[in-house]
Amino acid sequence: MTFGELLERHEREIFAYALRLTGSRADADDLYQETFLAAFRGWPPPRAGNERAWLYKIATNKAIDRVRRARRIVPLDDLRLAAPERDGVTLSDLATAVRALPTGQRAAFVLRKVEGRSYAEVADTLGCSEEAARSRVAEAMKKVKEAVR
Q1: Cβ atoms 65, 46 nearer than 8 A
Q2: Phi, then psi, of 86 in degrees rounded to 5
Q3: What CATH homologous superfamily does 3-147 map to?
Q4: Is the separation of the CB atoms in 84 and 72 below 8 Å?
């Protein structure tokens, strides 16, 4: 696979992921560009056949770096969760709860619950064990549920 093929194959989903992480089109554009620039510089990926997870890991790390530099929480105002409003809980309430999560838990939550990725993909993307990925998602779910009560 060439870098151009990698870009064509994954650009849309990486941009969508960046948008979910940042909540802003401008920030997502920046994160998307930083991700593919880092991927280009690091080409070829460390493991052939796992390019998608490699890109998600780069995007996640770039998002975490941006948060650390800015020393603020990444906004997720445009977060769209596949959950109807019920029991007085709105999408805005959910977005606020997700926004308050620590960055690692937020990334795990978005990958698993919003993107629908497997725990193996979440673990590979975040550079942790599958058990740690499950733990991060579970802890994030617990915090989100507590926040929207």
Answers
A1: no
A2: -155, 155
A3: PhyR, sigma-like (SL) domain (1.20.140.160)
A4: no
Place of tokens 């733990």: 135
One-letter identity of residue 4: G
Burial of 149 (0-12, 13-18, 19+ CB in 10 A): exposed
pTM for the structure as a whole: 0.52
The CB-based long-range contact list for 116-124 (8 Å cut-off, 24+ gap) reads: 117/56, 121/53, 121/56, 124/50, 124/53, 124/56, 124/57
Sketch the domain layout of the chain as residue ranges: 3-147
Strand, helix or coil for residue 86: strand
Which of the 8 DSSP states describes residue 128?
S
| Residue 29 predicted with pLDDT over 90 | yes
pLDDT of residue 64 exceeding 70:
yes
User: By three-state DSSP, how is residue 129 classified?
Assistant: coil
* Both tokens assigned to 75: 């906004």
